[in-house]
Amino acid sequence: MKKVLTRLFTTVSLLAFPAAAVAETTVDSTTVFRLFQDSRAGYDTKEFAPALQFLGLDVNGLHGGDLSLHFYGWGRVDLAEKSYNNQQADGNLTYGYAQYRFKAANAQARAGRFFVHEGIVNEQVDGVSARTDLPYGFGLSTFGGATVHTTDIPGESTDGKGDAVFGGRVNYRYGGLLELGLAGVYETKAPTLTSTAYAGRFGDHRLVGGDIWLSPHRMVQLMGRTSYNTETSGIAEQSYLLQLTPLKDLVVTGEFNDYHDRDLFYSSAFFAGLLNGNNLNQDSRSYGGTATYTVNSQVEVGGDFKHYTRDIGKADRFGGEVRYANAKNAVRAGAGYHYLRTSPDFAIIPSSDASGSFHEVRGYAMRDTKSYFTALDLIGYFFKKDVKGRDAAWEATGSVGYHFTPALAISGDVSYGSNPQYTDEFKGLLRLTYTMKTAAKGDTK
Amino acid sequence: MRRSQTVTALLLAGLVFALAACAQLKALPNLPASHPEELATGPVSCTECHEDQQKGTMKPFSAFNHSRAFIANHRFYASSGNDVLCASCHKVSFCADCHTNQTELKPSLKNAFRPDRMMPHRGDYLTIHKIEGKVDPASCFRCHGRANNERCVTCHR
């Protein structure tokens, strides 16, 4: 499969540039060379030099403007030691599909590999999908095809997914006040896992659920979703957000989330395996709020608070940040502070005197001109109790680049830090970006 | 016999309803495929240019102002039938900067020259995830749940 993807990636890469001549085309290409050394005590020192190519291609305006092609993927070749998964080369097609837009009702159809985000449904599919608005405020979307398989679970010969998946969403909108959605996903039978540890905690991927958006007043928005696992007969997720805009420049939010771990993780072999012991009925609940105030066109300040409750303990996170951008967005900067306060059970190695609490401090600044661009990013985590004998994990990253043309730029990053894994961590990266579009209007991103 | 007649009548009524609905589809307008004007760099406020009044069943433009709260909670908008509106300004590759099923570089590493963008797992997240994963595992599941990312299963076995 990887050989096929690699060939497909190469073919589409070669087709990208001629395609630019025949339609409204956008090419996003990023070539990255990295160089790093692993010299951990007790291991052989290794040099790594992976070369990476990310390529996105959008060809619009085909067939009288209704047909478009969309592609994104990446490939890697190791020029020195195998950098990651014991393969000298690797690649992945993130998406690649043809899309046809009909003349009315925002109707469109897609065929190929694509992501589906419809209400409670989040899937990656090799297949077809279609959506349309319907009269009287109704709407309909549907999809079906083959599941996109990923890495096998260790000790198993499968990733735990069925081979086919389909689903969809129907929705109803009333003016600009209300939207209600009902969505579902049905995946064919999940493979049987050999490990008995999954018994009772892993099975078929089948969910139904609803979502809501309600705005009874222009200052108020309520949105959220509830999903129900038909295999475990339990509610998997409830997430709701209330957003208030009492002033033009002030946005206040309040949120509530409730997750039932077994029902939520049931179709993920990876997460089902993480459920602790025989307690399959753990709940995770959180609530919190944020406030963001735009002081003027250049400065924004915000604060946030969130409380987490799990069967194993409780935690609070609070903090604030300030952001600046000058009139032309050429200079941007920001700073923030957050504190996560946890009970001992959330520590990396729980014990009566352990703590998972830490301070997070971050500051950044960047400048972007027609000719050059620079950025500096500093982030530090300061632990209340040492982790592996270290009281902090911090990293400083500097980036500098030059625009050869508006479309072509070269840039390099250097980062230095220290953390519980590495006494010193020094990394370098060289990046070539090419962002070309032939369409005269609209944003490239 | 009566039952089959009822089913047939219901199917015919459904067919008539479907045909009537299809006939009305042509009267439902399309959103533009791309935004007709070049947009400024940085987060936009739709209401800077658009009057805050919805047409038909469209949501108000003010709902899509790219405030910090909107960016942090964009999942609620992107998954509720607004993808056509999102696509008028954003290429799908913009979403793929973070949302992929398998990726080779952390988004914040690939885009280190854009520290102003909200991106996950900055800094030494290898250490931090051991705490965050216990505090809020559902937030990990949202992206990594069924992706079985190689980097996750390398250690979590």
Q: How would you summarize the topology of this molecule?
A:
The complex is a heterodimer of chains A (445) and B (157).
Chain A: H1 2-19, E1 24-38, E2 46-48, E3 50-62, E4 67-78, E5 89-101, E6 108-118, E7 121-133, E8 138-147, E9 164-174, E10 178-187, E11 206-217, E12 220-229, E13 234-247, E14 250-260, H2 261-265, H3 269-272, E15 283-294, E16 299-310, E17 313-325, E18 331-342, E19 358-368, E20 372-387, E21 390-403, E22 408-418, E23 425-437
Antiparallel strand pairs in A: 1-2, 1-3, 1-23, 3-4, 4-5, 5-6, 6-7, 7-8, 8-9, 9-10, 10-11, 11-12, 12-13, 13-14, 14-15, 15-16, 16-17, 17-18, 18-19, 19-20, 20-21, 21-22, 22-23
Chain B: H1 2-25, H2 68-72, H3 74-78, H4 83-87, H5 92-96, H6 107-110, H7 125-135, H8 137-144, H9 150-153
Helix pairs in contact in B: 7-8
Contiguous runs where pLDDT drops below 50 for at least 5 residues of chain A: none
Radius of gyration of chain B: 23 Å
Largest sheet of chain B: none
Ranges of chain B where pLDDT stays below 50 over 5 or more residues in a row are none
The level of helicity of chain A is under 10%
Number of strands of chain A: 23
Helix count of chain B equals 9
Terminal Cα span of chain A: 30 Å
- Coarse shape of chain A: globular
The helix/strand order of chain A is HEEEEEEEEEEEEEEHHEEEEEEEEE
